[in-house]
Amino acid sequence: MPYVSFRRVDGTTSYGRIDHATIHDAGAVAGAPVDLKAAIAAGPLSALADGPAIAAADVLLLPVIPNPGKILCVGHNYESHRVETGRAKVDNPSIFTRFADTLIADGQPIVRPLVSEHLDFEGELAIVIGRGGRAIAEQDAMTHVAGYACFNDASIRDWQWHTSQFIPGKNFPGTGAFGPQLVTPQEAGDLSGVHVTTRLNGEIVQDQPIGDMVFPIAKIIAYVSAFTALSPGDVIATGTPGGVGAKRTPPLWMKAGDRVEVAIGPVGTLTNHVVDEDVAH
């Protein structure tokens, strides 16, 4: 079953297994790990006690991992996206970082900032690290995955392109949508033929199978762990397919009132609407 992080009606936070409209509050069990990241580190998730059942409608979902130590993102990891951006082919993944305080949950608004109207969508598959390590061998990498979730790496394109460094355009508040749930590899199964599909106001704008990644998940984990130690709960966003708004004619920017969905088969569907910053704050 999938796992979620959430805020209870009393304002406290927890996590647990979600079964359709019911959440089994694992965090309410005496002696349970403090949050989903800690539960992943204690592992395996299948060993968690269910805890009391509560209605999913009565809680506020949080980002799957609200407090990851690292969020690493892969750029231009689908050939269709590399071609549309005019980037040269590379021998290694292009890695940039996103900050944890940019994350939002399923159902929460993506915020278009005051300083730009160039807000773009990027539907992606995110992986959550289960077993940490440094210099992880590619052949062992998949044993380090706790699960998968949907991600929308919403990007402020003009700020992304101020220089050759991506970080400013990838770290505005309220732009990293992450959810709704964590699905284990056992439950997700083989994802190579599963599509990352992004819909904007009901229209498909991105749609490509995960098997089309230039650098597959195992290669990414091996590469990243060569330069930084990975820890349980770390997140890697694996890149977006072609079809981004910035490369359309005319460009297709997200605006207040838009609804954007990222659907990845058994992993789930992440849904957010867009607001302007002056409305959100």
Looking at this structure, what is the CATH superfamily of the largest domain? Fumarylacetoacetase-like, C-terminal domain
CATH fold-level assignment of the largest domain = Fumarylacetoacetate hydrolase, domain 2
Number of helices: 6
CATH class membership of the largest domain = Alpha Beta
Label the overall shape: globular
Q: Major β-sheet, in short?
A: 7 strands, mixed
Q: How much of the sequence is in beta strands? A: 25-35%
CATH architecture descriptor of the largest domain = Alpha-Beta Complex
Terminal CA distance: 36 Å
> Could you tell me the mean pLDDT?
95
Question: What structural category arises from helix and sheet content?
Answer: mainly beta
> If you compute it from the alpha carbons, what radius of gyration comes out, rounded to the nearest whole angstrom?
18 Å
> Uncertain regions: pLDDT < 50 for 5+ in a row?
none
Helix content: 10-25%
The total number of structural domains is 2
Strand order of the largest sheet: 7-6-17-11-12-14-8
Instruction: Give a count of the beta strands, DSSP E runs of length 2 or more.
Output: 19
Order of helices and strands: EEEHEEEHEEEEEEEHEHEEHEEEH
